[in-house]
Amino acid sequence: MRLVIARCSVDYTGRLNAHLPLATRLLVHKGDGSLLVHSDGGSYKPLNWMSPPCRLDVEVPDEESASAGVLEHWRVTHAKTGDALLVRIYEVIHDSSHELGIDPGLQKDGVEADLQRLLAEQVDVIGENLTLVRREFPTAIGPVDLLLRDPEGGTIAVEVKRRGDIDGVEQLTRYLELLGRDPHLAPVTGVFAAQEIKPQAKVLAADRGIRCVTLDYEGMKGIESGAPRLF
Q: How many CB atoms lie within 10 A of CB 62?
């Protein structure tokens, strides 16, 4: 992971256009290729970002940009959509790289863990005639909560949350992009399952082709499936 604190401006072009004027910001270039632009405020969410699969190219600024004080351009292009993030670097205050290794993944709280277990035993909540491949299916960026198969041989990746928000949809999107590259799993579709799903998360999920399922935790606890537990 590379961490750069720099005075920069940022322009996003593609399905939407957005501009961040010149200011001091934190640029996070992660090992999965993604780039996140943070400020010293606005909670934990980046001001702008590019999710993988994407590519970062460092370019020499043209004469006009150089005369305005730009040292270099970072151009991040999404491999599938062609959306682009252009970061104009005016001053580098800090630049460091760190090897973080493989993250063990988020440890679920009691309710999320129970939801995942119950859903693994009651996959008909997601759809008819589905079969469970396994829970906590491992990937290079963390485990997928549930991996299912449909009768046609397609794969379904399920992300389980107690409260579903935009970050959960983004997390599932990254899993889907990675799993979809495996010919043994493709085609892969996604299901975002939670007790409560925020409206913004539903909109984003629909845009990403992800189906949302609202879980009745109390009802699921009252159903005895009789299916053997894998874990």
A: 10
Q: Is the dihedral of CA 13, 17, 23, 24 positive or negative?
A: negative
Work out the pLDDT band at 227, boundaries 50, 70, 90: very low
Q: How far is CA 118 from CA 20, 46, 106, 171, 216, in A?
A: 44, 34, 19, 21, 11
Q: What pLDDT score does 217 carry? A: 86
Summarised one tens digit per residue, pLDDT across range 12-55 is 998 889 999 999 999 999 988 999 999 998 777 899 999 889 99
CA distance 10 to 23: 10
Q: Does the residue 227 lie in any domain?
A: no
Kindly state the tokens that stand for 129.
């005639």
- For residue 105, give the nearest of 147, 154, 139 by alpha carbon: 139
CATH number at residue 10: 2.70.180.20
Please provide the size of the chain in residues: 231
Is 49 within 8 Å of 34 (Cβ atoms)? yes
CB 148 within 8 A of CB 135: no
Give the sign of the dihedral formed by CA 63, CA 66, CA 72, CA 76.
Answer: negative
Q: Which band of pLDDT confidence, cut at 50, 70 and 90, is reported for residue 108? A: low
The answer to the question of residue 143 being in a domain is yes
78 with 146, same domain: the answer is: no
